[in-house]
Amino acid sequence: MNSFQLALRVLRTDGRTRVSAILIAVGVAVATALVLLLVALPGATETRADRAAWQHYGELSEDGASLELAVSDDVAPDGREIQRVDVAALADPTQIDLPPGIDRLPAPGETLLSPELADVVDHTAGSQLGERFGEKAGVLGDDALEYPEQLVALVGHTPDDLPGTAMPQDGFNPSGQGADSFLGLLAGVGVVVLTVPSMVLVASSARLIAARRERRLAAFRLAGATPRQVISMVTAETAIAAAGGALLGWAVSPLLRQAATVVPWNGGTWQAADFVLGPAPTVAIVVGVPVLVLLAAVLGLRRVLSAPLGAAGGHTPKPLRWWRLVPLPVSGALFAFLVATGESQFEGTLLLLSMAMVIGSLTLAGPWITAAIGGLFVRRWRKPSALLAGRRLRDDPRGAYRATAGVVLAVFTGSMALTVLPSIEGQAGALREYADGVLYVETDHDSLRQIAADTNDALARYGQDERAATIGDAFLGDEHALAKVVDCDAAEQLLAVDMRGACEGEPGVYTPYPGVSRGELTVSADFDRPGTSLAADVPVRPMTATSEAAPEAIVDSAVIPSDFTPSTGVVAVPSTPVNVDVVRTALASAADGLQVQSRQARLAGQNSQLDDLQRVTVIGLIVAAVLGGCSAAVSTAGSVLDRRRTFGALMAAGTPVRVLARALRAEAALPALVATVGAGVAGTLVGIGLFAVVVDDGARVLTPWLAAPVVLGIGVALIASSVCTPALRRVQAEPLADE
């Protein structure tokens, strides 16, 4: 009988071995499906980028250009981003190659909308959205969209109507910028963070029959089987479960990919075809994961091969030493030192290495802390359940801690992210040049007055009281201070400054810097051009900047010499939360493709990215916690079955099942809490240090999300302890002589 036939016979006759094989297959299936998904993520982002490549500028083509493009983004009334592409054909439109999903080029005054944007336009007043674009002439196909619900407008123009930001192109941009490197990095982290708990689940499943398998293999060794034959037996037995699990993971991976399509990233969800992985990496993953499991199983046979008598008779674990705690403060001190002093790239590499050392030291210290808790139970508590749990934790802390160790990396990484991200979010958009609610368009001086006039006409037509103002850019004095040329009253309303009554006197120059000499006051349109002198009697009054990005000076337009013309400037309009969409429509329709900017829009974009990161972090933590809880539950069940003689004897002696169940719940829950809470605290402290590196000066923002490790620890503990009573009932129902 060969090894494969022997493995099949064992699986047919031994129920515990079958259960273990099924759980191993489930663990391998989960690991395989997760790795297939995570490895496909960079390619998915590249596919999305290629579909949306036409929405961005390509290579400039001064000679032989077939079209001109102006790319900008807008904001819908519901806060979603709108990608706007203004296009003008420079050649025969029928001869221009169009991207997939676009059946024709819109004529001047026409627009093609994405299905989602077309629906929003149909259900929104024209003054709030639709009048920003031309007449609707068609709908873009899904192949032209980055994600299914993307809001896109392709607006047709004549070459003379395009804004100054338009660029000549030899056709639409054919390909995107490649894979999203940041999401690729997250995917790589996810492969490690989620695969480790999956492999721990596999290991816990294998240990479900560890004692019985060791005795069986030791018997074979004592009967004369060679080490090679023993290895082939284990390989065959594990290969059946691992290969079946890998194939199951490959079979269910389309369902996992379908579930992943609803998780937003960078503004929207995914198309199902985005996550297609090539044959070569798919085969490598489906084959590689079982091979890793087989290697782990073979390496676990060292004791059976070298000392079969010891394996058959059992062994006493060696006590743990206090030195396991030393790496934790050492790695923490090294990390703190590098945070405080590190500046070079080499020191940055050492910083990452010290983080890995912190994770490793947590795993090393976990069993010792578990043993210490067990010793505390034995010394301080006198309840039978506490004494039983304490003895188990003290005598075999490695086995008690092993099942939940896989979640340490995930909780550490998640806690670190949930510390850094809210703190960065608190810094997002802190600098502002214009007052809150102000919408503005940057353009050249020749277009300023026309855009302002058209905007005011639209605002009057919409029945709004707000009016647009022009603000010129200039440099003041020999120091070339950044200045804005605008009426004082408009400056107080539009810019991030506090005039403090300075507008009540004659028009003048306003600056937060005292001591400006009137005799040296000049204004210039460009940094490197000679300035034009202001009148000698122009008053200089103080103002207060309310933001670091506020202008360094304001020059009232009434004191500007008639021969001075700013090169660039902005058209700015104040708005309120009630009429912001109407004001944006008025300004966007007048700007005709120029970017309409606002502080709120920048904040919304930044917060959207941070929300994506937090969402991915929380999903990863939940998956890792479920896998860790399942590992702990399987390990707890295996612990009960391995000690069935002990528990059977205790039950025969009259020990109530509820007392034994309480002891088992304690020994299963405490390592889980130690692992998750310890990793959570360490991740939070490391996150605070990383924030200090990323942001030199900023307040740490601690949110309720930091309680996630404790919640996950409780969840893992509950999952682990849920199998205690059923496992004991099974031991109680079986005759003690079966072992």
Kindly estimate the percentage of residues that lie in beta strands according to DSSP. 5-15%
Strand-pairing-aware structural class: alpha+beta
Shape: elongated
Radius of gyration from the CA trace? 34 Å
Number of helices: 22
Termini Cα gap: 26 Å
Approximate helicity band: 40-55%
User: How many strands appear in the DSSP assignment?
Assistant: 18
Descriptive tags:
10-stranded mixed beta sheet; 739 residues; 6-stranded mixed beta sheet; alpha+beta; 4 domains; cell membrane; transmembrane helix; membrane; elongated; ABC transporter permease
Question: In a few lines, what is going on in this structure?
Answer:
This protein is an alpha+beta fold and 739 residues long. It has helices at 3-13, 15-51, 115-122, 181-207, 210-222, 227-260, 279-299, 302-306, 308-313, 327-341, 345-380, 384-395, 397-402, 406-427, 445-461, 488-494, 580-591, 599-642, 644-652, 657-694, 708-721, 724-733; strands spanning 67-75, 81-89, 110-113, 135-139, 151-157, 167-169, 439-444, 469-476, 481-485, 497-498, 509-511, 522-524, 532-533, 540-542, 544-545, 553-555, 568-573, 596-597.
Break the fold down into its secondary structure elements and pairings.
Blueprint lengths: L2 H11 L1 H37 L15 E9 L5 E9 L20 E4 L1 H8 L12 E5 L11 E7 L9 E3 L11 H27 L2 H13 L4 H34 L18 H21 L2 H5 L1 H6 L13 H15 L3 H36 L3 H12 L1 H6 L3 H22 L11 E6 H17 L7 E8 L4 E5 L2 H7 L2 E2 L10 E3 L10 E3 L7 E2 L6 E3 L1 E2 L7 E3 L12 E6 L6 H12 L4 E2 L1 H44 L1 H9 L4 H38 L13 H14 L2 H10 L6
Parallel strand pairs: 2-5, 3-4, 9-16, 11-14
Antiparallel strand pairs: 1-2, 1-6, 3-5, 7-17, 7-18, 8-9, 8-12, 8-17, 10-15, 11-16, 12-13
Helix pairs in contact: 1-2, 1-6, 2-4, 2-6, 2-7, 4-14, 4-18, 6-7, 10-11, 10-20, 11-12, 11-20, 12-20, 14-18, 14-20, 15-17, 18-21, 18-22, 20-21, 20-22
